[in-house]
């Protein structure tokens, strides 16, 4: 899968296999988002997200169902779920069409491109354990922050 000669840098899908995707570019940013919405949507402490260029991402199979809400930062975020098994696979931010979000747990190999930052740490639960080695942002990524300002 991580054959260096393959143009596919990332691939994955939902739990039941109805939905499959691939991405031809490496993530522009990998992060853990501790915002209130990610806690609700994932049902756990945070979402681990890989942010990739929209142009490099495509679905190979299946269709997601999207739910749209306003994030802690005021962005319009649509999260895509498999209508069959309910896995949250993909996300879009209306204000940032140049990138899409991949739920890291849906990657076939989620060990690659590990997160480099934690965002919305002010919303984290007291029992949420974070890697002390990662840069922390109490809210979203501030202007001039790491690479793209893509966090919610
Ligand atoms: Zn599924
Ligand atoms: Zn979030």
UniProtKB/TrEMBL annotation:
A single Gene Ontology MF term assigned here is: metal ion binding
Domain CENP-V/GFA positions? 10-128
Q: Does the keyword Ribosomal protein apply?
A: no
Alphabetized PROSITE patterns for the sequence: CENP_V_GFA
Q: Which domain of life is it from?
A: Bacteria
Keywords of the record, alphabetical order, are: Lyase, Metal-binding, Zinc
Which portions of this protein are annotated as coiled-coil regions? none
InterPro entries tied to this protein: CENP-V/GFA, Mss4-like_sf
Q: Which Pfam families match?
A: GFA (PF04828)
- Indicate the family of this protein: Belongs to the Gfa family.
**Name assigned to this protein:** Aldehyde-activating protein
Q: State the species of origin.
A: Cupriavidus nantongensis
Taxonomic lineage from the root:
Bacteria, Pseudomonadati, Pseudomonadota, Betaproteobacteria, Burkholderiales
């Amino acid at each position: 899968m991580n054959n260096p000669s393959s143009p596919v840098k990332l691939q994955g899908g939902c739990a039941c296999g109805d939905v499959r995707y691939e991405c031809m570019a490496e993530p522009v940013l990998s992060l853990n988002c501790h915002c209130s919405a990610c806690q609700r949507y994932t049902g756990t402490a945070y979402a681990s997200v890989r942010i990739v260029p929209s142009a490099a991402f495509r679905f190979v199979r299946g269709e997601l169902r999207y739910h749209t809400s306003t994030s802690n930062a005021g962005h319009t975020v649509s999260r895509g779920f498999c209508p069959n098994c309910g896995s949250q696979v993909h996300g879009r931010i209306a204000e940032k069409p140049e990138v899409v979000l991949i739920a890291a747990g849906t990657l076939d190999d989620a060990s690659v491109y590990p997160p480099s930052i934690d965002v919305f740490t002010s919303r984290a639960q007291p029992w949420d354990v974070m890697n002390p080695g990662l840069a922390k942002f109490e809210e979203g990524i501030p202007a001039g922050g790491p690479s793209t300002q893509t966090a919610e």
